[in-house]
Write a structure and sequence with these properties.
By secondary structure, this protein is α/β, with parallel strands linked by helices. Helices cover about 45% and strands about 10% of the residues. It has helices at about 25-35, 45-50, 65-80, 120-140, 160-165, 180-190, 200-205, 210-230, 235-240, and strands at about 55-60, 85-90, 110-115, 140-145, 170. The longest helix is centred in the C-terminal third of the chain and has 18 residues, at about 210-230. Mean pLDDT is about 90; it is low at about 1-5.
Length: about 240
Amino acid sequence: MQLPLPVSLPVDETFESFVSGTDSELVTLLQALAHAVPDWRDASLLQGLASLKLPMVTLLGSAGRGKSHLLYALCHEMADRDIPHVYLNLNNAEAWPANAFEGFETLPLVCLDNIHAIAGNEVLELALFDLINRVVESQQTVLVCSSRLGPSNPAFVLPDLRSRLSWGVTYQLHALSDEARKTVVRNRATARGLKLSEQALQFLLHHSERDIPSLINLLDRLDTRSLQEQKKLSVNMVKRELGL
């Protein structure tokens, strides 16, 4: 088996930095998985997953819901525990060969991010279908996938793949409330050592894009501007960064 080169994952995308909102059940499941792999079948919280023909968890939702964050968090835990695993972002899969997933069924954990990206690519759909069949046969691997498309979405052109994807368990991730979004930005600012006043925080949230990736990107830019100007983050600084 030839594994892909290691991927550098964002260091701050961990379970500790994830604000779960109404998705606490999923986060609890993934944390239990992170602590139990490779002996996850013995964990009481994972008996529902262990009873499935296909041990697969799909994180479903639109962009910016935290799907990738949770996959990164899982992989950070695996790396800390020195457990063999693999993370692949299928947004990069266009030129991958038909054997891209070969041998993955021997690993305790496989994280496939953005599986919707291969919908309509019959070669890679077949490769994923074959991997799922090998996972079912070996029963050694847990698949954790993210997608913007539900398992039965006709964009996946292979009917057998749609059928297999429905064998696992699917969790729909929900948009965060305004208060939860505020918590995310405040926590990320604190982690960066940014002094963010309540006034500046409120202004930022009400005058920028609402999705979390855009907010974090803006915070990164403000962090750079704050360092360059050697000033605390203020409402005026937010205004200038947003071009207001």
